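SEQUENCE-TO-STRUCTURE ENTRY
===========================
What this section holds: a protein sequence and its matching fold, both as plain text.
Question of interest: how does this chain fold, as expressed in backbone structure tokens?
***
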Amino acid sequence: MSVSSSDLLSRWLGESEKGVKGVFELARERQPCIVFIDEIDALCGQRNDTESESSRRVKTEFLVQMQGVGTDNAGVLVLAATNIPWSLDTAIRRRFEQRIYIPLPGMNERAAMFKTHLGTNTFHTIKEHEWMQLAQNSEHYSGADIGVVCREALLRPIRRLGSATHFKRVKNPESDGPPEVWLTCSPGDADAQSLTIDRIDPDELCEPPVTMSDMVAALATQKPTVGGNELVKYEEFTREFGREGS
């Protein structure tokens, strides 16, 4: 069962606590059950003098339900995710017996992520060794960052297609459709014909491949979202309260 903090929080008095209780009651009915709560920091941040009474009640209800899970409901496992573990309420943090830090992906993982996010059915000209080049140039990038880079790279051939002035006939790389299609090319290409996209039958139009240049350009425009200071805080929190995962 997967829920986010936004699913549980409500502006109506008492509804947030009911939402928390309802999730755990449903989990007990369905046990064995795993409850995954995303962005738990929004639900169970540190207590302070300025927070509302409603927020305090939500934390109290969550603590009560977690305690019940730990004693009487062995078939329910609660997992939670947060990008700012140091902001969690101390009592909430203690309820989670394991606090595991998942570090940023290593080089091999990043190379695999570039492949995955680009998609197996995407028309591209990227060579096998170039995936590792991309991985080398993307240190400190998270999986989400790599996804953004790939989406930007996928848009670049579309932009080229819209502004192209010359096309040539090539063999259709797809198994279905016409045997030949129109592909963008430079004006100096021996087979180039002066055309614009609006004069070509859409069924005979070949989307330009994603190239290594597209990936490099996208990588240059999309910077990593995790800074060095944040990495230090993650490591300090892990040394004090948790352990490192993979």
User: Anything to note?
Assistant: Strands lie at 2-4, 33-38, 76-80, 100-101, 166-171, 180-184, 193-194, 243-244. The chain has a mean pLDDT of 87. The radius of gyration is 25 Å.
